Amino acid sequence: MHRNVLCPDKKNNFQTVSLSRKTVTSRIEAIDKNLTSQLESKIGQFTFCSIAMDESTDINDTAQLVLFIKGVDENFEISEELACMRSLKGTTKGCDIFREFQEGLLTLKVSI
Which residue of 16, 32, 41, 108 shows the fewest CB atoms closer than 10 Å? Predict the structure, then answer.
């Protein structure tokens, strides 16, 4: 196995890691919650910000809307982050895109 080649001294640590579906799912959810919390905190410190959007269709023919946020805080530090990705089910009219845009911002607690 690769663990023997890369980290032979950590072999026992790898063997004790649970990789059940439930464990992996809960770890992914915990990582998502932590990253979302960090992003919300960073956004909360922005003095000014801008949003960029892009819409594309995935391999399953589902439209995906991606929101990026760029902001500057009071120390003039600039940050640019992938804010969220929203699936557009049904049509991709301007009103559909705007609705998902608004919901994405609400999820991140960004006021328009």
Answer: 16
CA distance 47 to 82: 18
Residue with tokens 């892009």: 54
DSSP 76: -
b/e 54-92 (16+ beta carbons within 10 angstroms → b): eeeeeeeeebebebebebebeeeeeeebebbebebeeee
pLDDT tens for 60-87 read: 888 999 999 999 999 999 999 998 899 8
Interatomic CA distance for residues 5 and 27, integer angstroms: 26
| pLDDT reading at 90 higher than 70 | yes
